[in-house]
Amino acid sequence: MTATTIDGRAVSQKIKEQVKMRVERLKEQGVIPGLAVVLVGEDSASHTYVKNKKKSCEALGMRSDLHQFPDTLTEAELLSTIEELNNDPQIHGILVQLPLPAQIDEFKVILAIDPAKDVDGFHPISVGNMMIGKEAFLPCTPHGIMKLLEHYDINPAGKHTVVIGRSNIVGKPVGQLMLQKDATVTYCHSKTTDLASFTRQADILVSAIGRAKLIDQSFIKPGAVVIDVGMNRDENGKLCGDVDFADVSQTASFLTPVPGGVGPMTIAMLMENTVQSAENGLQKDKSAETM
Ligand SMILES: NC(=O)C1=CN([C@@H]2O[C@H](COP(=O)(O)OP(=O)(O)OC[C@H]3O[C@@H](n4cnc5c(N)ncnc54)[C@H](OP(=O)(O)O)[C@@H]3O)[C@@H](O)[C@H]2O)C=CC1
Ligand SMILES: Nc1nc(=O)c2c([nH]1)NC[C@@H]1CN(c3ccc(C(=O)N[C@@H](CCC(=O)O)C(=O)O)cc3)C=[N+]21
Ligand SMILES: [Mg+2]
């Protein structure tokens, strides 16, 4: 069996075309969707992300402001930047690149973001609303994964989904979204005993670990759908996922590549959330006028 390669670039392009039309409609009403990205220090994965995000904003006619700071920035300085962005009517989305330097408390920073501008979906209010199935900005990577499955007509209902990883930004929320789509969900992590014994039971396997090519055929049930979230460097410094693509493609039914799989979807969902936020703002202004 040779797996079908899930084309995240193609799907993200289609989503971005729809976002672009929404941007055009907003512009007709005098609103330019604006995203503020805050980058502290020199994390290389963050730099890639920031670069791709800026390109996408430009292509869609959105505004993107980069607020870049040295890794010596204090927590108070960062909090006051967020306060300014919260109060700036031109800014509809605020994204603070994680991880942050050790002197800054990530939780305090996320808590300071106005939930109405929380396009990353990391604020406890967004997380809580997602958990109880209420309207919320969904975290971009998990949401992008669900959109990929939908595009390929892969329905999680009744399927056993195994998620490797339990971070707040990928592992935990992707399991929740799968649960909402009626999957049976198992979480694995670094303390899991005999990882392969769980992953071999997965109809859908999501790997969000951060270890180059850890997942080979021995972890896979034949015919499984495999979603590779990892962004790693291999022994030659080349970008690669958690999954050994050449090996696993011989036994999986569908498989995402790295690059070109989940990554571009993360960006597309961020663009969508930012436009949604701008639309929400306009709606609010309109209802205030009629009061
Ligand atoms: N493509 C994209 O859009 C994005 C890609 N990423 C990439 O996805 C990967 C995961 O990101 P993130 O969730 O932030 O990372 P974290 O480091 O926060 O989480 C990694 C998770 O993997 C678990 N883990 C680590 N080693 C093993 C192991 N040997 N066996 C089983 N589980 C293990 C950890 O377990 P424990 O909790 O016990 O420590 C943890 O839950 C990274 O490579 C990151 O770069 C991230 C965001 C977006
Ligand atoms: N607050 C916050 N939100 C995040 O969503 C967030 C973050 N911080 N910190 C870093 C991680 C990582 N991440 C990526 C998203 C897309 C690509 C991406 O565009 N990848 C492309 C290109 C990769 C390349 O060419 O280098 C691909 O996989 O094809 C990469 C990495 C979001 N993260
Ligand atoms: Mg920190």
UniProtKB/TrEMBL annotation:
Pathway: One-carbon metabolism; tetrahydrofolate interconversion. Keywords: Amino-acid biosynthesis, Histidine biosynthesis, Hydrolase, Methionine biosynthesis, Multifunctional enzyme, NADP, One-carbon metabolism, Oxidoreductase, Purine biosynthesis. It comes from the Bacteria. The keyword Hydrolase applies. Its EC number is 1.5.1.5, 3.5.4.9. Residues 6-120 form the Tetrahydrofolate dehydrogenase/cyclohydrolase catalytic domain. GO terms for cellular component: cytosol. It catalyses: (6R)-5,10-methenyltetrahydrofolate + H2O = (6R)-10-formyltetrahydrofolate + H(+); (6R)-5,10-methylene-5,6,7,8-tetrahydrofolate + NADP(+) = (6R)-5,10-methenyltetrahydrofolate + NADPH. Belongs to the tetrahydrofolate dehydrogenase/cyclohydrolase family. It comes from Planococcus glaciei. Pfam families: THF_DHG_CYH (PF00763), THF_DHG_CYH_C (PF02882). GO terms for molecular function: methenyltetrahydrofolate cyclohydrolase activity; methylenetetrahydrofolate dehydrogenase (NADP+) activity. NADP(+) binds at residues 165-167. Catalyzes the oxidation of 5,10-methylenetetrahydrofolate to 5,10-methenyltetrahydrofolate and then the hydrolysis of 5,10-methenyltetrahydrofolate to 10-formyltetrahydrofolate. Homodimer. The keyword Ubl conjugation does not apply. Residues 139-280 form the Tetrahydrofolate dehydrogenase/cyclohydrolase NAD(P)-binding domain. HAMAP family: THF_DHG_CYH. This is Bifunctional protein FolD. One of its GO terms (biological process) is purine nucleotide biosynthetic process.
